[in-house]
Design a protein that fits this description.
By secondary structure, the protein is an alpha/beta fold. The chain is 45% helix and 19% strand.
């Protein structure tokens, strides 16, 4: 009897091992993938995430579901992903806010921008632009500097889409470069800042190209200068800060897809290749451009290098401008 029970136990153990082995050998992906967006629905990152989820799903032959986990300047969503199993079934798409801005302005971070994530690829960018209310007599950076320095204008303020966002960072970097003093008015998002700019409650704001496109085309705001290293295809006649005589800032908003650190090599390779294929698809590029993004694929190595390059720059800006959230 004991021998029979022992034999049965061994048989069941072998079956369990076999089943575990079979599961481990299942081709990736064998079930839906979750793509976390660390912002509420409707923003630029959410738009980017939904375009890329559809594109990745088409390439991988498996559904990719967007899950919004907004709050705390992307910290909630990013932290959620770092706690997930590094198996390729939980991914994050986010902007530089997650990887280079938060570490520069927050002391107690629940994740490390380098050690906690496995970059899979850069998927697109949108520039940052200085905007003015059309009633303000400013059409270029020379006129902007003169206007701000004029005592008659009583040191006008500028708006951003939030404390510690890239819009504040680009604003503070430029003000330091130009030797200007302006009060910063942070808004809870791009939409309310744009509304006040159009209404004349604030004379200037820094925002993304994707947010500015419809307003500039309608003439409700005026574009003054672009902070990207090169001109935007959406505003080909708008000179950059550098072209208008200022050494910086050369900054834009970029978007990257990452996984929790520790991803199996084969899964990482497959996801990298899928991202590259997705971004190269003309239909995907068309969809991204329709939302004001410039498709711009970069490999996992490019993503790692970008974070390493931008982190000290953001920390320097935060220190000089005294930008802190805790």
């Amino acid at each position: 009897m004991k021998k029979a029970l022992l034999a049965m136990s061994l048989a069941m153990s072998c079956m369990a091992v076999g089943m575990t082995s079979a599961v481990a050998q299942e081709p990736y992906p064998s079930r839906p993938i979750t793509l976390v967006v660390p912002f509420p629905p409707g923003g630029s990152t959410d738009t980017m995430g939904r375009v890329m989820a559809k594109a990745l799903g088409d390439v991988l032959g498996q559904s990719v579901v967007v899950e919004n986990k907004g709050g705390a300047g992307t910290v909630i969503g990013a932290s959620y992903v770092t706690k997930a199993a590094p198996d390729g079934y939980t991914l994050l798409v986010s902007s530089g806010t997650t990887f280079t801005v938060n570490p520069a302005i927050r002391t107690n971070m629940p994740y490390d921008p380098v050690k906690s994530f496995e970059p899979l690829g850069i998927v697109g960018r949108t520039g940052l632009v200085l905007l003015a209310n059309p009633k303000v007599p400013v059409h270029n950076l020379k006129e902007f500097v003169a206007y701000v320095k004029d005592p008659a204008n009583k040191q006008p303020p500028y708006g951003s889409y939030g404390t510690g966002t890239t819009s504040q960072f680009v604003g503070e970097a430029f003000l330091a470069e130009a030797g200007l003093q302006m009060a910063h008015i942070p808004y809870k998002g791009s939409a309310p800042a744009m509304t006040d700019l159009i209404g004349g409650q604030i004379p200037f704001t820094f925002d993304t190209v994707s947010a500015a496109i419809p307003q500039v085309k309608q003439g409700t705001v005026r574009a003054i200068a672009l902070s990207s290293p090169k001109r935007s295809k959406f505003f080909p006649d708008l000179p950059t800060f550098v072209e208008q005589g200022y050494a910086g800032p050369e900054m834009d908003t970029w978007f990257m897809v990452v996984a929790p650190r520790g991803l199996p090599a084969a899964v990482k390779t497959k996801l990298e290749a899928a991202l590259q294929t997705a971004v190269a698809n003309p239909e995907v590029q068309k969809n991204l451009e329709a939302q004001g993004f410039e498709p711009d694929y970069g490999s996992a190595a490019d993503g790692e290098a970008l974070i390493q390059k931008e982190l000290p720059i953001m920390r320097d800006i935060a220190e000089r401008a005294h930008i802190k959230l805790d």
